[in-house]
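User: Sequence in, structure out. Go.
Assistant: Echoing your sequence, followed by the structure tokens.
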Amino acid sequence: MENKTPFMTEIPEQEPQRQQYFMAHAKEQLHILEENLGRPLTCCINTFGCQMNARDSEKLLGILETIGYQAVETEDADFVLYNTCTVRENANLRVYGRLGQLGARKKKHPHMMIALCGCMMQEKEVVEKIKKTYRFVDLIFGTHNIFKLAELVSICLEERLEELEAQGREDKKPKHKMVVDVWKDTDQIVEDLPVERKYSFKSGVNIMFGCNNFCSYCIVPYVRGRERSRKPEDIVKEIEGLVADGVVEVMLLGQNVNSYGKNLEEPVSFAELLRRVEQIEGLERIRFMTSHPKDLSDELIEVMRDSKKICRHLHLPLQSGSSRILGQMNRRYTKEKYLELAEKIKREIPDISLTTDIIVGFPGETEEDFEETLDVVRKVRYDSAFTFIYSKRTGTPAAAMENQVPEDVIKNRFDRLLKEVQDISAQISGRDVHTVQKVLVEEPDSHEEGMVTGRLSNNITVHFKGGTELIGTIVDVYLDESKGFYYMGTLCEH
């Protein structure tokens, strides 16, 4: 094959210039493959897990589209990438199941490429299993080097070009090589790479990566690495660029946003970062997650109270209402401290919507411990809560703890907690009914034609009559009726 592209000898050492070089190079390689196949090549990214992963996938898709792949929704694509989650072990099992199906497809379409990245790939035993059982996988990388995708894809594309060149010469057919590039940790943050956003009017923005908390039930610090914060000027610059491109709402993302900035050369608090972001002209709304109670400062409460842009919603994970269990979880606050904090937030920001995470059945949890959790739920009166049954996660300290709670006991407690949360939510929902509120219109209503769905500042959804031209705008809506977890409203005419 005459038109195989050689690597330039002068590959830049510095980022992001290095990846920009590989994006251009991979684009040339892809073009040759497309000419040989006689059609454009497609890609599909399947995202498992949290909002951090969703944002990572937007970056990965931006790189793939810059290379020249056309994005499709289906896994009948030429390049399929799984961005994995490993918070619970059944997440791993889901990926293995899906991989088996992909392997069958690849037998019929040998030119297809399969890549795996994300948290699951940071576990050594997972990578070993894939190398042994799923040899058809082409590329494995982790959480720390997603910026390197173009470089890694270029290596895989080179192998495809060699296969094309060797066609008809069985003796010279190159052996399939799996590319594995997983970093144990990093302090590197690479800016200014392409992103393909899911929404034109709102966007996640990473402000930090990693976690230093080491809650005893959680695998995240082991797979995401230690905390590293982006410089505030880089964050502001990114948001200014997003606003210029039509974004009106940003979600600031981090495993624990309250500890933002502590590891910078010139430390900056999360509250100070919010002040700077608020100054950006054209930005209408600011959200953030997740907040750890141990680091939530009075300064942050004041900034939220006085802000015109920060949304009236705070997700404040409790996990357990028992101080004893919180100690076992390594959460580093007590029931009393949490209640004091929740009371202070509600006093200073009366219209705040508080939501939380709660784990039921942590090792050693007694009926008395569980009653303490119910007590916090009754006192704080959350707008809603994400309730989880404790899931043993291999590789965490909690997995080795004795006194695992019997399943039937956990089930009984979970049902009681869920009822309590739902009863309280039903009592306090609808407090804004018969008022006019600002709504960011997000999408057409999935159930009724001629309707759209939007979101209040406190994160509650509203359905009302309106056209798709409203999507991405903030409009006044009269809230006619509360349906518990959402409102029905009427667009105000101006």
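User: And one key feature?
Assistant: Confidence is low (pLDDT under 50) at residues 1-6.
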